[in-house]
Hints:
One of its GO terms (biological process) is proteolysis. GO terms for molecular function: hydrolase activity, acting on carbon-nitrogen (but not peptide) bonds, in linear amides; peptidase activity. This is N(4)-(Beta-N-acetylglucosaminyl)-L-asparaginase. The record marks 148-149 as: Cleavage. With 316 residues, this protein is of the alpha+beta class. It has one domain (3-312): Glutamine Phosphoribosylpyrophosphate, subunit 1, domain 1 (4-Layer Sandwich), CATH 3.60.20. The protein has 9 helices and 13 strands. The protein has helices spanning 12-23, 28-41, 86-93, 104-113, 124-134, 203-206, 211-220, 225-244, 301-312, and strands at residues 3-7, 62-68, 74-80, 101-103, 150-155, 161-167, 188-191, 195-201, 250-256, 261-265, 270-276, 283-290, 293-298. Strand 3, helix 3 and strand 4 (101-103) form a beta-alpha-beta unit. Helix 1 packs antiparallel against helix 2 (28-41). The longest helix is centred in the last third of the chain and has 20 residues, at 225-244. The relative contact order is 0.16.
Amino acid sequence: MWGMIATWSMSLDGITAASQALDHNSTAADTVVSAVKQVEDFPFYKSVGYGGLPNEESEVELDAAYMEGDTLAIGAVGGIKDFANPVMIAQRLAQEKVNNFLVGAGAEKFASIHGFQRKNMLTQRAKKLYEQRAKQLSEKLSPYSGHDTVGMVCLDKMGSMSSATSTSGLFMKKAGRIGDSPIPGSGFYVDSQVGGATATGLGEDIMKGCLSYEIVRLMKEGKSPQKACDQAVFQLDEQLRERHAEAGDLSVVAMDKNGQWGCATNINDFSFVVATAESPEATVYVANAHADQTKIEAASEQWLENYFAKRGASGK
């Protein structure tokens, strides 16, 4: 028994490779980091890693996190610049007894000392988009459509689970801004005795509900991953609308210790990828909000064709 679930269709290549690795007894720890790294390295994904869109000062600041479900060990980095794979740095931090979450210059110093690859993460394409956006600074800044986090939850044949996230955050964000992605309990959480969850969307709102931990808590109470996701997302959505008159994008995926999975979203056309021992071919699903439930369907051939055409034209 093994399984893996990840946010957004940009995870497809990573999950495809991961499914083969897991079937050949790879560990959840190795597999989840390798799959996230694959997304970080692809230059046309404008919200993660190399090619990620910059902050308002034209600097690419990256956030990433890693968690082991057996030990509950956590490692995270925030606002790190000029390092190729922040998820690997986060995994290394999870080995430390203390100082598990480092930001900015401190994270960069740790990465340098431990030999992680330095790299200018600002591509010409991202720079061009920044320059176009800079001309519009007189407008009210709102979350850009390219703020999507890659988040993954992985279960291996030994019953161990891990989770990892990586993002460049909101396009044109304030320097130093950290969203939910590297925050334990908000952007991710995993417990091998229960299951794991990871979130994507507007981090400022996801953090208000500790969304990933809430889903794992609900699964621990006996709810299925799907019911736990729906309950957590739509209750937070309702709460935010009652208190703030609006709610940002909230999307989550989850998997329990038995490989059962779930997804919930308050938006339309949220994509995610799943592979399990029972269905080993990585499959893209599309989720849409429907009242207080999430409607999920496998992506159509036309949907996939459009995705690959857009990606080939340097889109996400």
